[in-house]
Amino acid sequence: MPKQISLLSLLIVGSLWSVAEPVAAQVLVPHMVQIDAAELERRGLRLVEEAAQLAQFQQFDHALARAKLASQLLPQSPQVWFLLGGLHLQANELDPGVAALQRAKTLDPDNALILFALGSAHFQKAQYTDAAEFLEAGLKIQPTQIPALFDLGNTYYKLNRFPEAIAHYEKAIAQDSKFWPAINNIGLVKYEQGDIDAAVDYWQQAAELDEKAAEPMLAIAVALYAQGDREQGLKLGETALELDPRYASIDFLVENLWGDRLISATRRFLETPRMQEILARVEAQ
User: Fold this and answer.
1) What digits encode the pLDDT tens for the residues 19-46?
2) Could you say which of 3, 119, 164, 220 would form a disulfide bridge with 257 (CB–CB 3.0 to 4.6 Å)?
């Protein structure tokens, strides 16, 4: 599964906290202005609700349009800027996403979810030091958020801070012992450190937790093939790519944080005649 675990389910839909109901205008404000202001705020609230619902159904373009309008009607609402920032990230519009999230942070500086979203955004921009700072700050407020612990592990991995990466993967696993992506990623770290046996052990644990997880299965296949157990490696590789042919793409593997050592071994594995035959068959299906 992609290692940039989607925080959008956390950041946009599941954790979109309620927006306050409109407050009554001050007594000294003229009556007509009271009505207009209240109506604008109600419209903004409706737009926020519609945007969140559309995001749930993967209709991100429509959700983004409503969130943009809501931000004009409710410019002092950190929730609206938070939602808008997350939708920009979903559309791969990273700079507008960061700008909206920074606006949300200015309005609500101690909100952990906003900090996690900024960490995720900076990770996507390959600004790993900044990503780590935001994720660390958020985890000081909410230290048991599994997606954030996992993201911080990934961030330390990209910074080659391997012990810290493993420590945060282990913290995520401590919250959920069946969270196989963190177990899988410890395997990735171990392989890059040259501890292939340990890497295979972690990948086997991950594969046992999800029998349809193609990633740990392919990683085991590559490692076994490189160690000389070629027939077993090829069999596992065939099964993995039948489950998810995306893992035949080196670019996809790099996106999923496969390191240089593992990528080099995977290139050799995928170039074998047997794997080329398997890839041709899978692609033809």
Assistant:
1) 444 343 344 444 444 446 778 788 888 9
2) 3
